[in-house]
Amino acid sequence: MSLKPQLQSALRFAAKPYILFYTLPWLMVLLVWGTIAQKDMGIYEAQAMFFSSWFFIPFDLPIPLPGGFLTLALIFVTLSVKFIFFSDWSVKKSGIILTHLGVLILLLGGLITAKFAHESFMVIPEGESISSVSEYRERVVTLSKNDEIIAEKPFESVAIGGLFQGHDLPFQAIAKYICANCTMDFQDPDIAENAHGLAQKVTLKNIPLEKENETNLSGIMVDIDGAQNAQDGHYIMMESVADTITITHDGDTYSIHAGRVQQPLPFDIKLVDFRRIVYPGTDKPSGFESDIIINDGDIKWPVTIKMNEPARYKGYTFFQSSFVQRPDKEVTVLNVVQNAGHIFPYISTFIIFLGLLIHSIFKIRYRVMT
Amino acid sequence: MILRSMIAVLLMLIFMGGHVQAKEKQTLNVSGWSALPIAHEGRIKPIDSFARIFLFKFTGAESVNGMSATDWLAEVVFDPASAIARPVFRINKPALFDITNSDTKFFNYAVLSKSVQAKRGIIAALIEQNETSWTADQTEMMRVYQNYILATQLLRSLTAILPLPANADDLDLGLEGAVNYLDLKKIEQTLETRTKSTIEAKGADPSQYTQTELGIADLSFQLRIIQDAAQNNRLFKILPENFNSATNLTNWLAPWEALNEGKGSPQKAAYLEIWQEMAQGYLNQNQQAFDKAVTAAQNTLAPLELKYLSLEKTYNALHLKTLITSLYFGVFFLLLAQIIFPKTTQKHVQRLWPILKTAFISALILHIAYITFRIIILQRPPVGTLYESMLFVALICAGLSAIFMARGDINTKQSAAVIGAFSGFILLYVSNGLADVDRMPTLVAVLNTNFWLTTHVLCITVGYGFCLIAGLMAHLHLLKWPNKSLKSAPSNTYSNMMIVAVFALLFTSVGTILGGIWADQSWGRFWGWDPKENGALLIVLWLVWLLHSRISGHLKELGFTIGMGFITIIVVLAWFGVNLLNVGLHSYGFIEGIAVSIAAFCAIQTAIIGALYWRIKKSESHEN
């Protein structure tokens, strides 16, 4: 038995229409199920479970069910085989051929995006420059000596009774309370006596996690022991509120910082001005704009980022995401995306549009003739 | 709140004592005035639109007891003393405010104010609560309260320039004749000093005062009351910040906003003087003086190049939507009668067909005009809100049906007409339930882009229209399922449905991908499995599945038609259902309170398709 008939038979099997007949309804089931689940699980968790998975196990079922990746992969395979080996390469079918090509490009772009796209954000106060981006979900606690990081721990690995000891530290930093999503409460007056900074007034309290992980505000209550100049005592670190403890010892400055993981950028971005434009006579925003300067060595590129008008530079795309109104200045929040597959939807849209248009014209022509 | 109530009553008493008592008067023609501009909710609109919005908010209608919205508003701002006696405030459950033995649901401002004051404790507690926790009664109570706040602001809009019931002739203040707040404000220091010295010399008992002293104390009192009542009065924004701006992008202020926040200017003062003359003309029932002031106001604002205010006024007056809806309904009703009772109605309907066809085409032309009006007035593509999407999809459905009416036999034409008229009528009618009081709102920042509104939004809504027509054609095809034993002619409806389905796929798929590209431009990701995105994808997948299954033979004609019938449910779920989840980045589309309606629609659709399927199967079993 030669390989060729076997291959042909395998290809014919892979191009059978019933694969699409059964996978499409399953994809629709996943779509409906995963959409409704977002109400309780949040988009990120639901996406991970239903759409970005090969298999998933709902309700403790004894068998796993096919996830979005597997379903889409099956559709991609059957469509590819059908397209390459069994297409009717005639003018009459050119619309269908183009449409199938467009869908394949779209799915391929989706695969590249799912595997390689990376999303993060930047918070830049007016007049300041930032040369790193923050991760949305990963959190870390870092220990720096004179602005140089000497140790770091993922937030999830911090345990009560531990944090930073050793590392040639002249003092100990001990985690006394950890919350993955914190709120503040009034501090006990007895504890306040031996507390520093924000801890003199408030204490942290754990509250249920938000559905979207990036909206949680993590925090740690820390005891410092063995520091000089009455710096021992209780401290608080909480994301976006008071995220750094600073201790000086023998002329060195030690910083303990809790927050999102930072990734360096190969350039820095300065926010010149942020504008919130409102409709006449109202506070209703009609647009948000950030004037930034990208500084990359000798290159200084002034650009304005607006809603629906991002800035692209060296594979990074910067989007106007949000803003913070501080008492002293405005702060812009930019969404930063690296996505090698971002061009695919643009190409596929054009091809699918063309394909379906040609197909529709042929349909009408046939209808008129008959 | 007690203080606010007292101020409200005192203020009205002050103006009641004025030139015009609360009596019926000849209605002045305020047509010219109603075309003057006002900024409201971020859009510069004619006062006519502003008046309709607020009267509708208060009464649920755009006129009250034969009085037009503009006549009502003119009375409210120029003659508040008369306006407070007019029963225009609808309270759906008067018992909530302890109003019993009332055979009406419409009350005047005085009753409204008293009712709200009586419940101030409950209202204060409700304000502290989350809106979503309110019961239906509490929601009604808060609606009435909010209307009371708005009405109070409206009544006080122009109190700075309205004449006061005081004559300053003999008071040695350098003023003559009728005075208003602005006149008194100029001599505020003198009034205060002289009132203070009178009190120091003669005590607080007014009976000891001379006529002049009494007059000065009265003016001082009135000045303070009006001033206190005008805090945060920002509703009636008739003053442009910059009178020489070439565009209408300048900020706009309410008179009290300009006065209290130090934003006055010589130009604003001059413009307010014109309004003062308008008020005087209105109160004296002097049409000539009133019109002269209106013309002066129009001339003052001429450099602003405010376009389309008259067009919007015409649009308001035409009530096109009601007319179009009625025409669609009439055509649908008569043609439906023919489908349900063919033997008894066919002859009459055939005779009426030319009229019905003309009525349908007229409705379609008016519908196009209606959407065009909105595009010109709003200066943006026709779809930016859920409400607008329904207006546009209705047009697509009717327009597509008109294309099918152009060809084929009389049955095909009438089938197309009934589908077009039904979809046009039902979408326009249901859209009323989703409309805000302001039916021409400004858009949230992320939607404020004409490019994407033109490409993605129009493409996807055209797709919705094609899907609905394909779905209705499927229903009709099932209803008129060919009786094989009678060898009836093959139906055009089925082949038409196939073509519509292909175009529906074209528009929904391209529209969905364009939406992804917009998301990529706006949020940095092409696809986020957001409910709105998933809803759009669901329609595409359903169409792809149906068309491929039909081609591969997995679905026969009946299965395909039934599947196409269900596209109406898929579209409604994708269009409205996903917005109920309140999840994701499409927050501007979130809606509440229609879950039951959507569930009922899905159930009815399923029952209809099920019944039609059962009928066909029963008929086939008889044939066999």
How do the helices and strands line up, and which of them pair or pack?
The complex is a heterodimer of chains A (370) and B (624).
Chain A: H1 3-14, H2 17-41, H3 43-51, E1 55-56, E2 65-66, H4 68-85, H5 94-116, E3 118-125, E4 129-145, E5 148-154, E6 163-164, E7 172-179, E8 182-186, H6 189-192, E9 202-206, E10 219-225, E11 233-238, E12 244-249, E13 252-278, E14 285-296, E15 299-306, E16 311-313, E17 316-325, E18 330-338, H7 344-369
Antiparallel strand pairs in A: 1-2, 3-4, 3-18, 4-5, 4-13, 6-7, 7-10, 8-9, 10-11, 12-13, 13-14, 14-15, 16-17, 17-18
Helix pairs in contact in A: 2-3, 2-4, 4-5, 5-7
Chain B: H1 2-16, E1 37-40, E2 43-46, H2 47-59, E3 63-64, E4 67-68, H3 69-78, H4 80-83, E5 89-90, E6 106-107, H5 109-118, H6 120-128, H7 136-155, E7 163-167, E8 178-180, H8 181-186, H9 188-202, H10 211-229, E9 239-240, E10 252-253, H11 255-260, H12 266-283, H13 287-301, H14 309-318, H15 320-340, H16 342-378, H17 386-405, H18 410-434, H19 450-479, H20 492-522, H21 531-552, H22 557-565, H23 567-575, H24 595-623
Antiparallel strand pairs in B: 1-2, 3-4, 5-6, 7-8, 9-10
Helix pairs in contact in B: 1-10, 2-3, 5-7, 9-10, 12-13, 14-16, 15-16, 15-18, 16-17, 17-18, 17-19, 18-19, 19-20, 19-22, 19-23, 20-21, 21-22, 21-23, 23-24
